[in-house]
Amino acid sequence: HICHPSLANDNLSGVALSTFLARAIASGPRRYSYRFLFIPGTIGSITWLSRNEADVAKIKHGLVLACVGDGGQISYKRSRRGDAEIDRAVIQALKESGDPYEVVPFSPYGYDERQFCSPGFNLPVGCFRRTPHAKFPEYHTSADNLNFIKPDALADSLNKCKSAIDILEQNRFYTNQNPKCEPQLGKRGLYQAIGGESYERANEMAMLWTLNLSDGGHCLLDIAEKADLPFVTIKNAVDALLAHGLLKQCQNKAVDAITTNFQAKLRS
Q: Lowest CB count within 10 Å: 43, 66, 119, 165, which one?
């Protein structure tokens, strides 16, 4: 939101993060398109939704960025759905960072997520922030100035958002091309193909989990969560298995159908 004049954390920090995030996304390959909104709080999101109601069903993921420059830990507010892919991707990125963080359930009070998540839209939009609004004494005072912003914290917020988007960009569905029992991986050199000795056990488990759950109904994020392994470890296993013809990526239509069915279950 852009309606808080002279306030640095709330919400010049969100404007700055959005700008650099857009630049980072635009500089590399991507499968999704992205739209960044710079609008007044509440009335801006209501107006945008009103003008774009016919197309908002196309939105797969969304984030409201606010208060992202102070020195507090990340506090992520889930979407109204509670377990949307954006919720899971952000939480996975925060978990893998090793830094302290907090995850809170959706509530109909806060920033523009409450408009995007209103029952008539129910979009998968969470809120990414550090210290929540009204939880720091500088909130809505002249003390919320540039001196209150911590450059390292702002950079950390940006990097964690980028990590979440990387997960979304790479989160696909695959099918095991040798689904009847485990293929012999050792003769293919796969145990050594994706890591050194210190990572051998994790890489082995990543391949076994990936082969077992690649049935067209589990995405890579599902596998990382079930295996309790970093998303990148699962993605590395996928790349190695693809190179040996043991996996096949699902077609987009199949993925869309699976995603639609999954979201329908969540709503029910």
A: 119
